[in-house]
């Protein structure tokens, strides 16, 4: 008899096509032996009695009730690194858009496109939208997992001086991950020295709202913050205050939180980091393989 898999979110067909004849996709969550999920929250869901494993097509597992799963012996997989390149590319776009007022320039052209004198007026706009270059600036990367390291390497390639902090990685470990990262053991060194700070940590009790009033107090005036990881890593009331005072020059975020998105220094996207064809395929493929492997052999590979 075929094993029953339920897909809580639509995930890439490239991954689903890997399911062999031993598996059947079912619409009925209650009969699932394996669940594939992207970002849907499973916290309120009644876990099916026969559920053996959940595979998340993504890195973070905060949408999955881990305690409940442990209690019931349900194994949880994620797909670390599978979407790292997609997220890295959006972070780089964010960094470049923070340095250059690309967004302001695009809006200006849209507003003035009917103006016969647009070419003449353009000269004035050049001054208004003038930016800075990221080459030579200091980037602090908090969290040196797959995404953090890729961001660090790409930023170093663009001429940035990169500092990295990760309490779970030794100096030697960080060097092995990337020779371009200057590893710091004190997070304050990132806060005090960096022009750009990007967070790439999971949402845990220890990281929740880590970017807050106390952290801002240590940062340079006019710092740029990038959050393409998890919404709740940033305290939005404190961020609003920091934007109003000019402490934060720009907040580039993949979370459209209404408390801050009205501010001119904020450019927000609706959690698009992993939304590329390639990342979606990679995540779905890895998740499906992990799930089948476990259901067939009991192997816990978490790629
Ligand atoms: C992740 O945790 O990797 C992302 O949230 C993936 C996604 O956007 O689904």
UniProtKB/TrEMBL annotation:
Disulfide bond listed as a keyword: no
Family, as annotated: Belongs to the D-isomer specific 2-hydroxyacid dehydrogenase family.
Coiled-coil blocks: none
Molecular-function GO terms, alphabetical: NAD binding; phosphoglycerate dehydrogenase activity
Native species: Fusibacillus kribbianus
Superkingdom of the organism of origin: Bacteria
Keywords associated with the record: NAD, Oxidoreductase
Residues of the full protein shown: 1 to 303 of 390
Protein name: D-3-phosphoglycerate dehydrogenase
EC identifiers of the protein: 1.1.1.399, 1.1.1.95
Known role: Catalyzes the reversible oxidation of 3-phospho-D-glycerate to 3-phosphonooxypyruvate, the first step of the phosphorylated L-serine biosynthesis pathway. Also catalyzes the reversible oxidation of 2-hydroxyglutarate to 2-oxoglutarate.
Reactions mediated catalytically: (R)-2-hydroxyglutarate + NAD(+) = 2-oxoglutarate + NADH + H(+); (2R)-3-phosphoglycerate + NAD(+) = 3-phosphooxypyruvate + NADH + H(+)
Pathway connected to this protein: Amino-acid biosynthesis; L-serine biosynthesis; L-serine from 3-phospho-D-glycerate: step 1/3
UniProt entry tagged with the keyword NAD: yes
């Amino acid at each position: 008899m075929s094993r029953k898999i339920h897909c809580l979110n639509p995930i890439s067909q490239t991954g689903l096509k890997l399911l062999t004849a031993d598996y059947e996709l079912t619409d009925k969550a209650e009969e699932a032996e394996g669940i594939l999920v992207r970002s849907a929250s499973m916290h309120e869901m009644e876990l099916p009695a026969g559920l053996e494993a959940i595979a998340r097509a993504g890195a973070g597992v905060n949408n999955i009730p881990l305690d409940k799963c442990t209690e019931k012996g349900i194994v949880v997989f994620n797909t670390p690194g599978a979407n790292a390149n997609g997220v890295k590319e959006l972070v780089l776009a964010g960094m470049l858009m923070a340095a250059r007022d690309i967004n302001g320039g695009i809006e200006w052209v849209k507003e003035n496109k009917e103006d016969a004198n647009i070419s003449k007026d353009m000269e004035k706009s050049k001054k208004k939208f003038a930016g800075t270059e990221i080459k030579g600036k200091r980037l602090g990367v908090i969290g040196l997992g797959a995404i953090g390291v890729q961001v660090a390497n790409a930023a170093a390639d663009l001429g940035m001086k990169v500092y990295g902090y990760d309490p779970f990685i030794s100096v030697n470990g960080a060097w092995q991950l990337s020779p371009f990262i200057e590893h710091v053991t004190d997070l304050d060194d990132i806060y005090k020295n960096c022009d750009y700070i990007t967070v790439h940590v999971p949402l845990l009790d220890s990281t929740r709202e880590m970017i807050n009033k106390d952290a801002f107090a240590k940062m340079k005036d006019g710092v740029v913050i990038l959050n393409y990881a998890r919404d709740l890593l940033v305290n939005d009331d404190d961020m609003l205050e920091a934007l109003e005072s000019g402490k934060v020059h720009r907040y580039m975020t993949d979370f459209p939180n209404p408390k801050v998105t009205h501010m001119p220094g904020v450019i927000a996207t609706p959690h698009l980091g992993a939304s590329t064809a390639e990342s979606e395929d990679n995540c779905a493929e890895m998740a499906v393989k992990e799930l089948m492997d476990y259901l067939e052999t009991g192997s816990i590979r978490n790629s």
